[in-house]
Amino acid sequence: MALLEVDGLTAFYGDFQALYGVSLSVDAGQAVAVIGANGAGKSTLLKSIVGMIRAAPGMIRFDGEPIGGGRPPKIVARGVTMVPEGRRLFSSLTVEENLQVGGQLGRPGPWSLARVFELFPALAERRKERSTSLSGGQQQMVAIGRALMSNPRLLLCDEISLGLAPIVVRDIYQRLPAIVAEGTAVVVVEQDVMQALSASSYLYCLQEGRVLLEGAARKLDREAIKAAYFGV
Amino acid sequence: MVAFVHVIVQGVLLGGLYALFAGGLSLIFGVMRLVNIAHGDLIVVAAYFAYFTMQALGVGPFTSLLFVVPASALLGYALQRSLLNFALGDELPPLLVTFGLSVIIQNVLLILFTHDNRRLYAGPIEMASWKFTPDLAVGVLPVIQFVVALAIIGGLQLLFYRTKLGRAFRATSDDPAIAQLMGIENRHIFALAMALSLSVVAVAGVFIAIRTTFNPFYGPQLLIFGFEAVIMGGLGSLWGTLAGGVLLGLAQALGGQINVGLPFTAGHVVFLLLLIVRPQGLFPKVST
Amino acid sequence: MSAGERTALAHAPVVHASLSSRIGMTFWTVLVATLIAVPYWGDRQMMRLLTEVYSFVALASLWNFLAGYAGLVSVGQQSFVGLGGYTLYLCALWAGLNPMVGLPLAGVLGGLVAVPIVLLLLNLRGAYFTIGSWVVAEVFLQIFQLVPAVGGGSGISLPATVVQSVARSRGARESLIYWVFLALAVAVIGVIVLLLRTRYGLALQAIRDNETAAKANGIDVNRTRMIVFVVSGAATAMIGSFVFLQKLSITPFSAFSINDWTVNMIFITVIGGIGRVEGPIVGTVVFFVLREFLADLASTYLIILGVVAIAVMLKAPKGIWGYVADRFGWQLFPLSRRLVRPPAKDRADRAVRVPTPAA
User: Fold this and answer.
1) How confident is the model over C257-275, as pLDDT tens digits?
2) Structural domain tally of chain B?
3) Predicted interface score ipTM higher than 0.95
């Protein structure tokens, strides 16, 4: 049984329909990529899974239990969390406090303040600084670390490469395997296709709210991906 | 000269109470951006509760706090969960809902307790004073009240900056949507903040009800004092709020010296002057 | 679209009327005409009640103008009500001025006093503006209590001579006062409607909907709000002056009490429909109907009003009229805005026909 099963998910912003029956699944310990152009519905998908957008109960199952329509705090308590788009750090809190808030729930697991600082040494030196005084890449690390502090079994990453220099992005993506190794499944939403392919074993391509292409990352044809991405 | 020092001391000590009113108000604003127009009326509710607790159990006002504070906390939690959580957001609803609440509370109190002025009697301690010099005596009660106020503000500061709950409050204040991803339930946190606020102001309410009389319509006066202290002190800083409270207390004490009918007016005048000269307050925190 | 059509559209007239508003205006015209005639066939009690209705309609409309259009929620408008009353009294007592002269003078003074007040208060945002406006009213209350020259705590009673200078007979006086109030209510609403029809009114609604965007479009938000506040203050003072003429005495508490004035203004507007001109009118009707049924239960009445207002704010924030108007698309005043495309003969290039494809 898959860790996460999304089945025919639809999502609306008011009258505007953003997702038209998206289905995907993630196994425990797997890294999955969701790619697509702007407006394809990737963020909407992640927000629906974590409860920030209402979904119908049966459409999302985590560990066999329906979680659709649940409130985010309950879903996070079950072990699903998200690194939100644009980092969204708590601006009046220090780096360390941001991480500590992430661990608010006290879920047991391998991740702790010490372990996060091990993964991101640059943060350890800056633990007492206001999170807003860090560089973009470091802020992204804080955001990831904060999410890890809740010891999730499934980590959703929403466009972590956005606004960052390629070298910084590569640096961050290099830590992903360590995260997966600790037993957390990861869903990476990306516009950067190469990065997504390198980090994951399975790929979904969304276009205008629908899954146009899916498959094992290594097996997919580059041309097919391009076509699906741009909806050609 | 001695009389002057005496007035200063009185003003500063009174300022401690005002700082508590202000603290409750600014705590709520900090966590959920709500200015509760019924804030003062809820303080009066606490005073009435103390009054009747004292009558029913035959205890003094300080003992009554053991009942009043938890009751106020419960009231705050319930009020937030059942009503105020739904009034959050845009400009108009919070203002108008809490305004309506204020009117309702005042009139319910009027029906229940009539317009009679009441006071809480603390006994001999009201008259006790320490004599520093043959001319300068400072009341024991005001000093106790000030020390308690300081302790509460210090406690709030500790709570906000050194505890898990405080982190949760600050995170929710920064970004309520993302705070949810930390497992923080907004509805609950807001209600806790309101419970905390009302607990703090309940103490101040009981203290001020020992000093002066109160009736169902006393609330707005207290709201205005708290508000003036917050604005003068500067938004976002608890110690700034203390400074604002002390400034207000001083202005009122000095005004009262000039003319016995003048204290509140003097306070308002100082407030308005400060608004002209330094609208951001004495110690504003650079807020987001 | 051709260049010719574009130019024509830029100069196209904006039409404010609609079918609904034409019906509305007819209704208002008939209603006002009927109301003007009331002194000729109505009894004293009815005239008194209607006078009260007019004062509430006017005061609530002004509060609505401030809060629903300019976005300034003031709980201190009683400052101007009392100020107007005192102005009328003192002008009569100190300068022997007829109340009919005192009325516009109260307006002038109200407007003048409003200027420094709004300059001060605009330093405060949102809820803090609101409480600040309350502080101002408290200051007025306390000043008037302390200064013996204006009657101090016990206030002033209006001497009979002043009352009689309005008109000699009681009947004539009551009719005159009735007409003044009716005129004030009609004028207040009329001015508001006219203002809203101008670009200025459009600016107001832009500010209300999105202040930042309004600023980005070059609207001077603070100046616009200032003007609304000052006009509102002046008009409120005028109404206040005649309210106290009727009451025959004034004290600081009756003049500057939030409960006598502002609470009602707010509840009426919220329940009737904030942000629409019809709102306060509907709200006043509801207010008085409720009062008829709950007449003797003053406190209970306020509690019920409060509960209703809260319920309206949470469940139907647009108020009774807002809900009805949105549901049926009604509008009783010509306040809509439609661009009318100029008729075909004005479009120069009508003569150029698009060639039809050969069959």
Assistant:
1) 888 789 999 999 999 999 8
2) 1
3) no
Contact residues on chain B for A113, CB-CB shorter than 8 A: none
Beta bridge partners of A154: A80, A185
Alpha helices in C65-169 (DSSP H): 78-95, 99-121, 126-146, 160-166
Q: Is C285 on the interface with B (CB under 8 A)?
A: no
Within a domain: residue B77? yes
Is residue A95 within 8 Å of residue A142, measured between CB atoms?
A: yes
Q: Report the distance separating Cα C275 and Cα C270, nearest Å.
A: 9
Are the Cβ atoms of A92 and B167 closer than 8 angstroms? no
Between CA B171 and CA A92 the distance in angstroms is 8
Q: Which residues on C lie below 8 Å from B91 (Cβ)?
A: 71, 73, 126
* Bridge-based pairing state of the strands C156-157 and C249-250: antiparallel
Question: Which CATH number among 1.20.1440.20, 3.40.50.300, 1.10.3720.10, 3.40.50.970 corresponds to the domain A4-230?
Answer: 3.40.50.300
Do residue C139 and residue B111 have CB atoms under 8 angstroms apart? no
- Full set of structural domains in chain C with CATH: 15-334 (1.10.3470)
Q: Is C18 left (phi over 0), alpha (psi -120 to 50) or beta?
A: beta
| Distance to chain B for A99, nearest Cα, Å | 10
The answer to whether residue B150 sits within a structural domain is yes
Among B41, B99, B221, the residue to mutate for chain C (most C Cβ within 10 A): B99
Q: How many CB atoms lie within 10 A of CB A56?
A: 15
For residue A100, which of A153, A142, A51 has the smallest C-alpha distance? Answer: A142
The yes-or-no reply on A/C contact (3 CB pairs or more, < 8 Å) is: no
Q: Which two tokens stand for residue C227?
A: 């003007």
| Residue B281: pLDDT over 60 | yes
Flag whether residue B168 sits within 8 Å of chain A, measured between CB atoms.
yes
Q: Return d(Cα C348, Cα B79) in angstroms, integer.
A: 67
Q: Which residue positions in chain C have pLDDT lower than 50?
A: 359
Measured in angstroms, the CA of A128 and the nearest CA of chain B are apart by 13
Find, among A105, A198, C196, A38, the residue nearest to B180 by Cα: A105
CB spacing of A76 vs B181 below 8 angstroms? yes
Read off the pLDDT of residues C168-223 as tens digits, 9 standing for 90 and up.
788 888 899 999 999 999 999 999 999 888 888 888 888 877 777 888 887 788 88
Choose the closest CB to B96 out of C258, C266, C307.
Answer: C266
Is there a contact between B185 and A147 if contact means CB atoms under 8 Å apart? no
> How confident is the model over B262-269, as a mean pLDDT?
88
* Mutation target among B167, B169, B181, B288 for the A interface, most CBs of A within 10 A: B181
**Which position has the token pair 């091990």?**
A118
Tell me the residue range of the domain where B249 lies: 2-277
B66 inside 8 A of chain C by CB: no
B83 falls in which pLDDT band (50, 70, 90)?
very high
- Which residue in C has a C-alpha nearest to residue B40's C-alpha? C131
